[in-house]
Amino acid sequence: MLCWHCEKPAHAVCYFCGRAVCKEHAQVMPAFITMFLAGNQTPKGLAVADVIWCGLCQPQPEPIPMPELY
């Protein structure tokens, strides 16, 4: 695969959108793996630091309603 930015050989794939990136263009960003309700109905999230990010896509901070899929 080739880097989305420069077409050099890619070394990773964006966690969020799947674009391939080389080491030079790879960036990092934290990402949530899962969210759940803990004791006393307290929301908690399990996150991972430094997942690969292409720098182009825009992961949304809040869930997006999609009623048409229901």
Structure description:
The chain has one domain. Helix content is 0%, strand content 37%. The chain starts with 11 loop residues before the first strand and ends in a 17-residue tail after the last strand. It has strands at 12-13, 20-21, 27-37, 43-53. The radius of gyration is 16 Å and the shape is elongated. Strand 3 (27-37) and strand 4 (43-53) form a beta hairpin. The protein is mostly beta strands and 70 residues long. The chain has a two-stranded antiparallel ribbon with strand order 1-2. Strands 3-4 form a two-stranded antiparallel ribbon.
From the helix content, strand content and strand pairing, which structural class follows?
Answer: mainly beta
Strand order of the largest sheet: 1-2
Number of helices: 0
Give start-end ranges of low-pLDDT stretches: none
Q: What are the secondary-structure elements, in order, as H or E? A: EEEE
Number of strands: 4
Assess the beta-strand content as a share of residues. Answer: 35-45%
Indicate the percent of residues in helices: under 10%
Q: State mean pLDDT (0 to 100 scale).
A: 94
Shape: elongated
Largest sheet: 2 strands, antiparallel
Supply database-style keywords.
single chain, 70 residues, mainly beta, two-stranded antiparallel ribbon, 4 strands, 0% helix
How is the topology of this model organized?
Layout: E1 12-13, E2 20-21, E3 27-37, E4 43-53
Antiparallel strand pairs: 1-2, 3-4
